[in-house]
Amino acid sequence: MNDPRDLIPLKPLVFQVLLALTEGERHGWSLVREVRQRTGGDRILPANFYRTLRGMLGDGLIEEAGRKEDRRYFRVTTLGRDAARLEARRLQELLGDARTRRLLRKT
Amino acid sequence: MSEQLFRLLLLTLPADLRRDFGDDMAQLFHDYRRELTGRPVHLLSLWFGAAYDVAAQAVAARAPRRAARPRWNDRETPAEPEFARTGGIVMRTVLGDFRHGFRLLRRYPASSLLALATLAIGIGANTAIFSVVDRVLLRALPYPDPDRIVMVWEKRLREGVMNNVVSPADYRDWRARNTVFEHMAAYAGTSVSLTGDGEPVVVPGAAVGWSFFDILSVRPQLGRMFQPDDEVLGKHRVIVMGHELWRTRYGGQRDIVGRRLWLNGNAWEVVGVLPASFQFVQEIDLWVPLVFGQEVTRVSHQLDVYARLKPGVSFAQALDGMDRLGQQLEAEYPQENRGHGAHVTLMRDVYVKPLRATLLVLFAAVGLVLLIACVNVANLLLARAAARRREMSVRSALGASRGRLVTQTLVESVSLSVVGGVAGCVIGWVLLQALPAVMPERMSVVGLEQIRLDLRVLLFSFGLALLTGVLFGLLPALQASKPDMTDTLKQGGRGSAGVRRRARIALVIGEVTLAALTLVGAGLVVRSFSQTMAQPLGFDSSQRLTFTLSVPPARYKTPEERRAVLLDLERRFAALPGVRSVGAVHLLPLGGGDSRTGIAIENRETKPDDPPTRMHPRIATPSYFSTMGIPIKQGRGFETTDDDRAIAVVVISETSARRFWPNANPIGQRVRFGDDDTWRTIVGIAGDVRHWGLRRDINPALYWPQAQASSSFLTFVLQGDVDPGSLTGPVRLTVAAIDPNLPLASVRTLDEVVAESVRSERAQTLLLAAFGVLALVLAVIGVYGVMAQLVTTRVHEIGVRMTLGARPFDILRQLMTEGLWQALVGLAIGLVAGSYIMRLGGLPEEMLFHIQPWDPITLTAVGVILIVATLAACLIPARRAMRVEPVNALRQS
């Protein structure tokens, strides 16, 4: 089993995919829609998306959850959950740092 | 289709990635596409994005990761990847160049998009047209051994006619006595009323010799085809049904074979159904055997004759054999067959040849557009090379080899071509969906409906795109790779780019030339079309409804009965509210039907070698002329009293009068039909009518009254005070009230008939005009690009001149003059070359109508349009030059 600390920092897309998967199993199109909705970002194009997923599978962040209606489903692993938590903490600390330097107003 | 295209893109990915996730990627792409249905702009951007995405990932997935930048998934990569040691270094460099190339595309988005768009449009249009050319010209008819299928015609050397339709007697003798054909079968198209099961309809039918389907090598889907017995009178009431009618009217039921149908009032038995794949020149729903009675005429000519060559017999032998047979028959029937021989042509030539010219012209036009697109891309690459001279010099100074720089530039231009090629395929596919509407009729037999973008066409396009990239990438690559380093570095990249500037001026001139060529062609076709539409029809088409009614002889047995019911109908139509006038004729102008017959003139001696007197007879009712607005120029039209008890009368057309009575008054003269012994008196001369089409010659016509003839079908013309379309309902009710089994056919307004007759000319004109506009737009983009670049590289010079006292207007004038000169030179070459090519037959005669290839109006218009467009393209960069601040310009250097 990998140490999640080796994987930090996560690429933004990897982090978003992990976040989307914490709510349950999803297939590719559903993931893409969720991430786009959450970030309001650009289209996530097929080759880039699945190459990223392959990397995540290889690192053990996610695993396959079988096929339904000819679509492949994915779920997050414990390692993935840990990594996402670490990344969130890292981002929070970064934010805290930015706040102390008064880049952002405290809310 | 787009799914496949996307999968083709995926081929660039490493095999393992594609195997693991290819299907998912295609699925995701499909999801995106579904989401964007009906939003073409977004769809286009998706395609561009996806192409870039796949290309970028293809590179990234292969490229060894840099050890210096650890990533979250990098740890397992060995520090020095194996393939880098084994010559992989070259690969890595090229991949790096690709990445650099794509990055450049993004760095100059405006110019890159322009180049990509021009390339995509050029390749797309080319692919679409090439698909058609490939299908129609390069491949054969949709039958096995198509080069063995021929058509046999009657030839009349003295009249210069090689392909006249055939008389039944000649056909019978040819079939019995020829030694060169395996099968021979005649074809006669007709309309059939189908009644007794559901709404009565008129469907297209054909009577054919029993071996017709053996000639085309078609097997039935159900039942059987015709056999020799079916031609025996009494056993002949059998039908082979077209697939479409079987599917739509009879729901594809298999028990259709053996069922009885009512055709023209008689019971016929269905014996077979054709397969869906079968195609013929016309869409025919019902096929029946062609049967002759005891008396077979040799005077009336009406049949198309098809045949298949015997195995081992060559086309030349067939031609020779039939020629001899024709001479024998001429000797045996010196009266009827005087001057008639037999002639053989390949079926393919009959149907494909007329399309060839149109297709080749379209292909040429689209080729010119592609050339302009290529010139634009070349321009872009040259401009970019110019802008990057300094970069190249620096790299060269730092030790990059010449080969290295050439490779890099080349890779950049190829990546441009690849993206352009992908987009071009998409555009080509879209265009192909729209093309069938544009092509001339009679296309179904050559299979236009079946045209798809196939792999070969796709490869052709990609090849074209790559060639463009390599060809136009190489020139700037070679130039860029031998920069005079010290000079360029010193000058800050401005440089004395004399050679390059001359090359680009040459490109502008070339572009204007190509655009002028395309525009001259398009302009001539547009002018031809407007000339066509300006032709007098000879009748008034507005506010008129037409439809055809046939009364089946099986139920209306005598000519008197048929005449009475048609007369009754005409009276009832005239009484409908909103109807001003009603007339009827058996062959409507521009309706596609015609007949022709030999005429004898009383008291006129004919020498045996005189060309025969032939006229085109039309059966008409008395009010036909006034309803159609055809003027009676002399004498009178028909009266209601001109019936079978009165003396026989005819009205001839002006052309008939001019041709056959050049120095005499035909009124009062008498004529006789070739196969009839009644003398008929000419009582009037009617105005000429274009019967076959606006571009066709006017034939000598002859009208005879319905009350003295016995046509079992008539096309009615209703002139309305109201919208003619609104009369359809009342007309149907009127017909149903008299006989619910009388089907109404070809219900159209007369305006629609006229429009339909020029449909393919209109479509070709539109298409060529579109290509002309496209060429113009691309050329303007090109000129703009060059001028803009010119201004950028000359900011320093302009600054100096302004400092020395030049006014902004002087700068503007100088730049505009320069642009104008280039345009004028290109225009002059284009116009001269254009009119020369047209004179040599660059446009086929059938596309030019009443217009000279050097038509001054067209040439002037093209000149004015191009000059104005070029000046407009120069104006924007020139205005920018006017606003140059001398201080800034000087400081820049």
Strands side by side in the biggest sheet of chain A: 1-3-2
Tell me the number of helical segments of chain B per DSSP (H or I, 4 or more residues long): 25
The rounded distance between the terminal residues' Cα atoms of chain A is 39 Å
- The oligomeric state of the chains shown is heterodimer
Shape designation of chain A: globular
Poorly predicted runs of chain A: none
The amount of helix of chain B comes to 40-55%
Q: Walk across the major sheet of chain B and give the strand order.
A: 3-4-9-6-8-7
Give the amount of beta strand of chain B, in percent.
15-25%
Q: What is the number of beta strands of chain B?
A: 22
Number of helices of chain A: 4
What are the low-pLDDT stretches of chain B, counting only 5+ consecutive residues below 50? 65-88, 441-447, 492-496
DSSP strand content of chain A = 5-15%
The gyration radius over C-alpha positions of chain A equals 15 Å
Radius of gyration of chain B: 35 Å
Please summarize the sheet with the most strands of chain B: 6 strands, mixed, barrel
Return the average pLDDT of chain A rounded to an integer. Answer: 84
The most extensive interface between chains reads: A-B, 26 and 28 residues
The number of E-state strands of chain A comes to 3
Class by alpha and beta content of chain B: alpha+beta
Largest beta-sheet details of chain A = 3 strands, antiparallel
Report what the structure shows.
With 107 residues, chain A is of the alpha+beta class. Chain A is 55% helix and 14% strand. Chain A has a three-stranded antiparallel beta sheet with strand order 1-3-2. In chain A, strand 2 and strand 3 form a beta hairpin. In chain A, helix 1 packs across helix 2. The longest helix of chain A is centred in the last third of the chain and has 23 residues. Chain A is globular. The model of chain A has no long low-confidence stretch (mean pLDDT 84). In chain B, a hairpin with a 4-residue loop joins strand 1 and strand 2. In chain B, the strands form three sheets. Chain B has a six-stranded mixed barrel with strand order 3-4-9-6-8-7. A six-stranded mixed beta barrel of chain B has the order 14-15-20-17-19-18. Chain B starts with a helix and ends with a helix. Chain B is of the alpha+beta class and 893 residues long.
